[in-house]
Amino acid sequence: MTAPRPREAVDLADVERAAAALLAPEVRDFVAGGSGMERTLAANRAALDATHVVPRVLTGIDSTDTSASLVGTAARLPVAVAPMAYQCLLHPEGELAAARAAAARGVPFTVSTLSSRTVEELAETGAALWFQLYWLRDRGLVEELLDRAEDAGCQALVITVDVPVMGRRARDVRNGFALPSSVRAAHLDTGPTSHAHVGRAGSSAVADHTALAFDPTLGWRDLEWLRGRCRLPLVVKGVLDPRDAARCADLGASAVVVSNHGGRQFDGAPPTAVALPRVVEAVGDAVEVLVDSGIRGGSDVVRVLALGARGALLGRPVLWGLAADGQRGVTRVLDLLRLELEQALLLAGCADLADAGRLATYVRSDPS
């Protein structure tokens, strides 16, 4: 199938095909790949496909309201852009282009610790920013990043807790993947001689770099310290066990993100559509529950709302849009998502997102 031009894309799969036709194979693999045998990567999609939402009829509605409040941030959709590293790999403007698109379409943009543009640069786009933190060995740098996030006007802090070490991603290992010298982790001040830029056969330079930078000993005491140190609402990303979600609530988190890192960490972790209802049941109204991993369209957003999520984080589709056509490509992705979400809500008989949260669901016992 010939890849459509991004502005002619009719769904997010079209955008992915357009991006794949433009990218170098090793960069495409870096974005698309998962860890291990990629079982969890595949299971995320299969579990969403196996989740059926029961529409309501005779509701008499002719329009729907997609606006949301996510962790206190106003949004036109129940969606935020997920934290994703090194976006200048996909387009010269990288995170700047994606954040401008998010600002134009009224959704929060999450700045990664491994962003190739600084939080200060991204604040100038006018986007509603959240800042994502990896727990670093350099505690002074952790504190510096917290201060920079607050000073830049970020509206939430997202701590990622499922990466004590980076999962072994076979595609990157086979490719001997390394960052080009033009792309760096702007917040970590890495130059072209850093480990992330030194490619070796049978190794991922990005994994080598994070092994040196990340502290795998992150624990509950650290989370408690972080809650006391940072004034921003705290979002804990990478939660799958309901017991962990409940403890996050007890420690003062404002939200948890049910996430398996898009299938890029523990291969064998449950798909998020399966873990989500259990987490929602465990925390009740104590914290907001968001979800990511595998969201590929508006009907997926309705699925996770019906399963109890407040909203979703959108990952790879944003990167495909960025690769395909920069800011215009990301804007196209968000516009398609909005169109699909509006139609899905109308077809399900929902006047707003609260109605979607009351829809019944059933799940095929064999998602394959």
Tell me the layout of helices and strands.
Layout: H1 12-22, H2 25-32, H3 39-49, E1 51-54, E2 68-70, E3 73-75, E4 79-81, H4 95-105, E5 109-111, H5 119-123, E6 129-133, H6 139-151, E7 157-160, H7 170-175, H8 205-213, H9 220-229, E8 234-239, H10 242-250, E9 255-258, H11 272-283, E10 288-291, H12 298-306, E11 311-314, H13 316-347, H14 353-357, E12 360-363
Cofactor: FMN
Domain FMN hydroxy acid dehydrogenase: 4-366
Keywords: Flavoprotein, FMN, Oxidoreductase
Question: How would you sum up this structure, described in words?
Answer:
The protein has 368 residues and is an alpha/beta fold. The protein has one domain: Aldolase class I (TIM Barrel, Alpha-Beta Barrel). The protein contains 14 helices and 12 strands. The strands form 3 sheets. It has an 8-stranded parallel sheet with strand order 4-11-10-9-8-7-6-5. Helix 11 links the parallel strand 9 and strand 10. The protein is globular, with a radius of gyration of 19 Å. The chain starts with 11 loop residues before the first helix and ends in a 5-residue tail after the last strand. The mean pLDDT is 95. Keywords: Flavoprotein, FMN, Oxidoreductase. It comes from Actinoalloteichus caeruleus DSM 43889. This is 4-hydroxymandelate oxidase. Pfam families: FMN_dh (PF01070). Its cofactor is FMN.
* Main sheet makeup: 8 strands, parallel
| CATH class membership | Alpha Beta
CATH architecture: Alpha-Beta Barrel
Strand order of the largest sheet: 4-11-10-9-8-7-6-5
The helix fraction, in percent, is: 40-55%
Structural class: alpha/beta
String of helices and strands: HHHEEEEHEHEHEHHHEHEHEHEHHE
Poorly predicted runs of 5 or more residues: none
Distance between the termini: 25 Å
The number of distinct β-strands equals: 12
**What does the oligomeric state look like here?**
single chain
CATH superfamily: Aldolase class I
Cofactor: FMN
Domain FMN hydroxy acid dehydrogenase: 4-366
Keywords: Flavoprotein, FMN, Oxidoreductase
Protein name: 4-hydroxymandelate oxidase
